Amino acid sequence: MLECIKGRKSSREKILDAAAELVREIGSGRLTLDAVAERAGLSKGGLLYNFKTKDALLQAMIQRMIDEVQAEKEAYRATEAPGPNFEARLCVMACLSMRKGKMREVANGMLAASAENPNLLEPVRQVLGTVLTDIKQKSEDPEAALLAWLAVEGLNSMAMHNISPFSDEDCGMIADAAKRLLEKGIAS
Amino acid sequence: MLECIKGRKSSREKILDAAAELVREIGSGRLTLDAVAERAGLSKGGLLYNFKTKDALLQAMIQRMIDEVQAEKEAYRATEAPGPNFEARLCVMACLSMRKGKMREVANGMLAASAENPNLLEPVRQVLGTVLTDIKQKSEDPEAALLAWLAVEGLNSMAMHNISPFSDEDCGMIADAAKRLLEKGIAS
DNA sequence: GTCTATATCAAGATAGAC
DNA sequence: GTCTATCTTGATATAGAC
Prior knowledge:
The structure is a homodimer.
Chain A: H1 11-26, H2 33-40, H3 44-50, H4 54-79, H5 86-97, H6 101-106, H7 108-116, H8 122-138, H9 142-160, H10 168-184
The structure holds a DNA duplex (18 and 18 nucleotides).
């Protein structure tokens, strides 16, 4: 949060980027400090100065993912037009934004943490719990809202594991369908 | 397929069960041959007689998962009442059945393979591709069908990573909502 | 703040006895 | 078909120089 005075990214950011990139390339369980250090352009010593242990690195990857999604959601809160199932719509939009740009890589932190030490996912657990109660309480149609949210989570999960069979057009169509479901609900 | 003459499970089955169990307990990236051997009740030598390499074990875990889901789907094909989006309904039902019993553990094979060697997920990729074209072609309402399928996949993904915030009642409600979406479609 | 060197340990795989 | 070594590699983490 404080690192942006210089034009260059801080070492921490470069390291987190490198780690997230590597997960997809070599597998979440093969993420080694050596590989991260090389990709980030410093030595293992330099890496371990920034993150005392591998768990600390993974924890930071998780936290960054959570922060980015949260920020994305709040950005949509400011720009989205009001309407039914507003809170769920924000979640869906934020999830969908994980398909593009840096966010896509950032999500790999979850895979890496899950592989190494499932306990590190505790913060994610908590966020999902909050989102669930939020959607349940604030939605005009909670069932449609949960289906839409889960659908984009499913989409993201497949993308994260690199097994998504969906083309970009498919994804656009699904995104539209999810938004329509949020607006109109399930037919009766 | 041929191992069921004796009352006992074959060694291969015991090994696959042990491996699937361990993934959730210690993390997909920490799955070691030693741990699997101990849990399965044999030595590492015995384990490596059954599976020449760790990749072979992971590949077998993946294949078993695919086979079980496929079998579940075909079982539903025989018993489910006909109706709209029939093919999608089978997929949704099969996915939902992964929440119970042995199936739940079996799905962990995907995590283990993803951690160790993402290429091992290729069979999963192919199955998902087939399911997608199937649902697209055979559904009266492809958009509703895809949303319902993705929603239960999202549910499974969270369960697989042990980050699901959904209670059993939640899951029942979501399952019902997904089925209703398949029957009635999105409101217009 | 980053580097090299190294200690320590765990994991996959092999060989051969039973 | 299963067991007990053992080989070899690679990965985390530490210590201390620059």
